[in-house]
Amino acid sequence: MDAEQQVDHVIDDCFFAVGQALGRDKRIDYDAIVWWRTRYRALFLNAIVRLGNSWLHDRDRLNRVGQFRRERADWHTSGTTTIDLEAAMAASAEVEAGRRMNARRATLPA
User: Fold this and answer.
1) Which domain holds residue 48?
2) Helix count (H) and strand count (E) of the chain?
3) Is residue 106 part of a domain?
4) CA dihedral (85, 30, 92, 23) positive or negative
5) Within a domain: 54
6) Of the residues 31, 47, 74, 79, which has the fewest C-beta atoms closer than 10 A?
């Protein structure tokens, strides 16, 4: 399987995790889904090409991050039943900022 096919499997699994966390009380606008898929497909493809496919090792962590991203998007909906593009983008910005902060912390001397 080439990198393009591998990343499609990873993205599909991440969306499945978001859907599990979503439940029946919320829906995601099409524009938000397209934005998330485009954004993370590019990032994951870059990582797979540069570092190799570590999906089996990273799956649980990435699914938890996907579920957390959905929770943050839900928070940004201000009580509506729809996660729109604005909420999806805000949630991603928060989760990615946290990831960068954790990565910097991991590189600091003990």
Assistant:
1) 3-101
2) 4, 2
3) no
4) positive
5) yes
6) 79
pLDDT of residue 103: 53
| pLDDT score at 66 | 82
Contacts of 26 (CB under 8 A, 6+ apart): 74, 77, 81, 82, 83
Mean of all residue pLDDT scores within the chain: 82
Structural domain contains residue 20: yes
Q: Is residue 110 part of a domain?
A: no
56 forms bridges with which residues in the sheet?
A: none
For residues 11-50, b (16+ Cβ closer than 10 Å) or e, as one string?
beebbebbeebbeeeeebeeebeeebeeebbeebbebbee
Work out how many domains the chain is built from and give that number. Answer: 1
Distance, first Cα to last Cα, the chain: 40
